[in-house]
Amino acid sequence: MGDRPYTLLSCSVSLDGYLDRAGGTRLVLSNDADLDRVDEVRASCDAILVGAGTVRRDNPRLLVRDEARRRRRTACGLPANPTKVTVTERADLDGDAAFFTTGPSERVVYCATPKVDDAVTRLGHVATVVDAGHPVEMAWVLQDLARRGVRRLMVEGGGTLHTQLLTAGLADELQLVVAPLFVGDSRAVRFVGDGTFPWHDGRRARLASTRAIGDVVLLRYALSDRYDGEGTS
Predict the structure, then answer these.
(1) C-beta separation of 175 from 218 below 8 A
(2) Residue 29 pairs with which residues in a beta bridge?
(3) What's the whole-number mean pLDDT along residues 79-95?
(4) Which residues pair with 222 in a beta bridge?
(5) Among 40, 86, 125, 178, which is 20 to 30 Å from 133 by CA?
């Protein structure tokens, strides 16, 4: 298993690199065929990690949608859905959010030490709250997930979490879907923020495969020597 799970980052961006519009209704970047592909990737993972901002903003359910995929998981002795995981510094999360209330999935909240008591009060009835230190170190979070039996981890945003994992060299694979539209608003959230990344003009990331899926394109990047290419078609 190693000291951390195989870590796969998955997201969709506009042509100008945004995850969403600046406000109002959520911008849907993927199409139905790609959403089905994402569902297949979810079904192949032990846990799905999102940032607390994504939980607040997008209210994601993070479930495997396809019944046949859920049945295949249970036939292998796995839960029908992967474990849901989030990370928070402020414990500013609503226990009634879909992340906590939909599906029978196990739910784990990694919280900064100063807010652990608040997190237990708010979320202890719907999730396992873990003291993740202060500040929260993502390398430690991944190691703890490995200790909990997570071998394959899917990360579905948002930009802050992607930035933390990429700059720390903790990602093994990036699945980046590019949608044929522009957001054109610098107030919107980008795929990543500022940081010092291991890939730059002197060390380019390796493009492992490309795939057109209707009007979007999937780019798969191998970010470590652990890249396994699972699911490539």
Answers:
(1) yes
(2) none
(3) 97
(4) 173, 206
(5) 125
